Amino acid sequence: MLHQLGNEARLLAGGQSLIPLMKLRFANPSHLVDLNFISGTSYIREDNGALRFGALTRHAEIEASAPAARIPIVHDCAAGIADVQVRNRGTIGGSLAEADPSGDWAVVLMTLSTEVRCLSNTGERTVPLPDFIQDAYTTVLAQDELVSEVVVKLPPKGSGGAYLAFKRAAPVYPTASAAVQLTMEGDVCKDAAIALGCVGLTAIKAKDAEAALCRQSITEKTLASAQEAARAAADPQSDMRGSADYKRNLVAALVKRAIEIAVRRARGERVEVSHIYA
Amino acid sequence: MPEAIAQVAIRVTVNGKPHSLQVEPRVLLVEMLREQLDLTGTHVGCDTTYCGACTVLLNGAAVKSCTMFAVQADGAEILTVEGLEKDGQLHPIQRAFGDAYGLQCGYCTPGIMLSTLQLLSKNLQPSETDMRKAIAGNTCRCTGYQNIFKAMQMAAQSIKGA
After folding, report:
1. Is the pTM higher than 0.90?
2. Taking CB atoms and an 8 Å limit, are B49 and A60 in contact across chains?
3. What is the CATH number of the domain that holds B136?
4. Is residue B14 domain-shared with residue B75, that is, in the same domain?
5. Mean pLDDT throughout A5-26?
6. Which of A203, A220, B33, B50 is the most exposed, having the fewest neighbouring CB atoms within 10 Å of its CB?
């Protein structure tokens, strides 16, 4: 169908970004194909050490899901996106396929082992998330291809994560966000994944910040060098949400807090996390 | 003459009453409610998915009716502020918003009451955080929210006691 409708056709998932973009005339699709009437596209399944999310699974369903709560950082993300109304409509597949630089899911899922299943008339392929998102609002999806499923590997034992987004108010995009997933062995960090949101054209994997923690114990010193590396990895634009400098400082502060929570969760502590409003 | 836009037939149940309607595919749910069904209690505030004045319940879930198309509601049950009262009796949420002065100009109130209903349908003992989260997507420019929280608590008590 997409093949017949041509390049200017768009798929409509939750519509919480696309419909506002159309009203603002930033998007002007020739055709809209509504995916919401296709049954069996909304589910959360645990299977073979991974969670599988149907593309049209709503944020609110993930927020309320017991299997999804097995990865606390996934719950943090789902429970903090925009507001109740938006979470009741918006979908995980739509969020990834839109690839908005300020979107929440890409940042969080970048710290986990995530694959995106893409489906077209001619077949199916599985693309690792870092390869799926190519640029702002740009993915590897071909014109006649859609996201069918998002597959997230369960982190190993001793792993903990946290996602913090800083927002002026619930319904707006964050000013900056940070996702951290750490695997600890005693006091030593065996593996670290750190991603930054809203401070670049895509979610940014802060590799130097990860390296600053790997095989180290988490002390004031290692925390400070991870923060410094995160600050350097961020590439923000000055806009109405704040200056580039402000955002660099903010993202470094969020990384520190997220690391501290991730360490506590890796020890098995229950820590409630919610997005921070200014 | 511009080309006539094809109409799509949909069936919706609004406030318990079934309707068969013809709608243009581009019509938003809020436009259908206000202009075709004359249910003008659902307001349009920002029209950019921010303010929540257009909140209605779609199959029990709060949604911003300015951010979905009417055709997407085909087969759904919708509750608007007009559906809250029963047989001339105000809903406990409506009564509480009056009694606790939970409104001033009233523009945001229909949306806030429906967000409150979604919360109270699952949780009759909401904490302050629960209430703040429940109406985080509803903007009130008058009250400063404190009396809204009082009204939400009062409504919860009243529904529990009923």
Report:
1. yes
2. no
3. 1.10.150.120
4. yes
5. 94
6. A220
